[in-house]
Amino acid sequence: MSRRAVCVVSLALFLFAFLAPTAAYAVRIKDIANFSGMRDNQLVGYGLVVGLSGTGDKKDSTFTMQSMADMLEKMGVRVDRTQLKPKNVAAVMVTARMPVSAKPGTRLDVTVSSLGDATSLFGGVLLQTPLKGIDGKIYSIAQGPMALGGYNIEGAAASTQKNVATVGRIPGGAIVERGVPFEFNNQQKLSLAMYHADFSTTMQVVERLNASMGGQFAFARDASTVEISIPPEFRGNLVPLMASIENIEITPESAAKVVVDEKTGTIVLGRDVRISRVAVAHGNLQVTVSENLNVSQPGPFSQGQTVVTPSTDINVNESNRRLNLVEGATLQELVDGLNAIGATPRDLISILSALKAAGALHAVLEVI
């Protein structure tokens, strides 16, 4: 290849790099969709935690007393239930998430949560606990010492607490005994469930999948579901197909939305939010009411009485703000325009609500 041809090719690549659509916001398909069959199964069980240092359930927890007695009787120990003191024992619920690909012998992390009135599970050991699925069958067995991320210490006149001491975790504390009867490679079709329903994003996924597989194998059933017919060369062996399509990158689209959390004053604006040209003036009105009690004392030997007279002071303070023009063709212009008003996040909630009512805010305003 001549030097001139090399220069032409280099210039073409240079222009393509700057004129091609940016992939800065590209994400992988596996980050925005869930494949059929690749799901977790919820497991739950009831068990006992022992070895607590006096922070277990109180004697009023009848289900803890019953569980202790039943456990000891199964081990051949006869007990008088009325004499049991469960202060070192706590009844707990044990939960875990088992992937569909988990096989017997696989270890799972479990979460242990107090069910009674125990004050702390620190130092406790979970006894053997069967974990069941929604069908009532036992899929895993959990047991072991717990790890807590907090503590609770109480004294006669004071107490201190860090995080939550009644919930703990056992990393790898459950062993799978039964797998889910599901054969991934035997599927004749694959389904992608999009996390957010959007027609534009779903069509991007369909187009990129068909381009990658070299045929019309994917089609959109609705705004959040994509179905894929398995190409003949991958039937019975879906893992290579999944590995190739799950890393395909697309640029997700979403509706313009403003999310407001009024409890914390948090405001999140999407990148497609726009505001028409509008004038905004926002002033704070603050009213302070204070009550004072004045005591009037009579003079010596005057035969008078002490009188208490209330006094009320009311102060009204209203800031004077000028009109500001606000217009946003881009997210940065919108943020700059709202910041020019000088309002706090709490004030912006009221401003955004008023802009929506005036028809100037072109986005969905969602309050959570």
Task: List strands and helices in order, with pairings.
Elements: H1 3-19, E1 27-28, E2 33-35, E3 40-50, H2 62-74, E4 89-99, E5 107-114, E6 125-132, E7 138-145, E8 151-154, E9 159-162, E10 167-176, E11 189-194, H3 199-213, E12 218-222, E13 225-229, H4 239-245, E14 249-250, E15 257-261, E16 266-269, E17 274-280, E18 285-296, E19 307-318, E20 324-328, H5 331-341, H6 345-357, E21 361-362, E22 364-367
Parallel strand pairs: 15-22
Antiparallel strand pairs: 1-14, 2-11, 3-4, 3-6, 4-5, 5-10, 6-7, 7-10, 8-9, 11-13, 12-13, 15-16, 17-20, 17-21, 18-19
Description of the molecule:
The protein folds into 3 domains: 28-36 and 183-250, Gyrase A, domain 2, CATH 3.30.1360; 40-152 and 160-176, no CATH class; 258-367, no CATH class. It is built from 6 helices and 22 strands. The chain is flat and about 110 Å long. The strands form 7 sheets. It has a 6-stranded antiparallel beta barrel with strand order 3-4-5-10-7-6. The protein has a 4-stranded antiparallel beta sheet with strand order 2-11-13-12, with helices on one face. Strands 16-15-22 form a 3-stranded mixed beta sheet, with helices on one face. Residues 4-24 have low confidence and may be disordered. The chain is an alpha+beta fold and 368 residues long. The protein has helices spanning 3-19, 62-74, 199-213, 239-245, 331-341, 345-357, and strands at residues 27-28, 33-35, 40-50, 89-99, 107-114, 125-132, 138-145, 151-154, 159-162, 167-176, 189-194, 218-222, 225-229, 249-250, 257-261, 266-269, 274-280, 285-296, 307-318, 324-328, 361-362, 364-367.
